[in-house]
Design brief:
It is a single chain. Helices cover 55% and strands 11% of the residues. It has eight helices and five strands; from the N terminus they run βαβαααβαβααβα. The chain starts with a strand and ends in a 5-residue tail after the last helix. Strands 2-3-1-4-5 form a five-stranded parallel beta sheet, with helices on both faces. α1 packs across α8 and α4 (54-71) packs parallel to α5 (86-92). The chain has helices at residues 15-26, 33-41, 45-52, 54-71, 86-92, 104-111, 124-142, 154-165, and strands at 5-8, 30-32, 75-77, 97-101, 145-148. It is an alpha/beta fold.
Length: 170
């Protein structure tokens, strides 16, 4: 078993929204590894970062992603930093991976780049740019298709994604 589509991309890009729309259009289930982590840990991702630090969170995330890839056959959204792990990227090889991209100005509009995002707590625009410089090539290296979300509605992104992935609606 493996997911029909795996969504990756930066925080705030719309993985959850587009993932739900894709699942609805494809007549399949939707799962988000961030939701899995929050449910299993009984606390928010921000709390895990504060209480245990990023390395502990990344270990939790790595296990959650591996479990979801093995168990879920619908649309799966991964946390923005999950692709930092080489083992996770290896698991994504051969999967249908959709990379949703956006520029920093779009990120500001969508997320406000606020303190609820633990990796962006100080100088959010600069930190977002640095995160994307570190992650963009990783997203691109595992992507089957890339869809820019800037200035597009979730419905438009979903339609473009279906075409890019050559998937037919249910």
């Amino acid at each position: 078993m493996s997911p029909l589509v795996v969504l990756v991309g930066p925080m705030g890009v719309g993985k959850s929204t587009v993932g739900q729309l894709l699942a609805d259009r494809l007549g399949t289930g939707y799962r988000d590894t961030d939701d899995d982590i929050v449910t299993a840990q009984g606390r928010s991702i921000a709390e895990i970062f504060v209480d245990e630090g990023e390395p502990a969170f990344r270990a939790i995330e790595k296990a959650a992603v591996a479990r979801a890839l093995a168990e879920h056959d619908g649309v799966l959204a991964l946390g923005g930093g999950s692709i930092l792990d080489a083992d996770t990227r290896a698991l994504l090889a051969g999967q249908r991976v959709l990379y949703l991209s956006m520029d920093v100005e779009e990120a500001v509009k969508r997320t406000g780049l606020n303190a609820a995002r633990p990796l962006l707590a100080v100088n959010p625009r600069k930190q977002w740019r640095e995160l994307m410089e570190a992650r963009r090539s990783l997203y691109e290296s595992i992507a089957t298709a890339v869809v820019a979300t800037d200035g597009r509605t979730p419905e438009e992104v979903t339609r473009i994604a279906l075409d890019a992935l050559e998937l037919k609606e249910a």
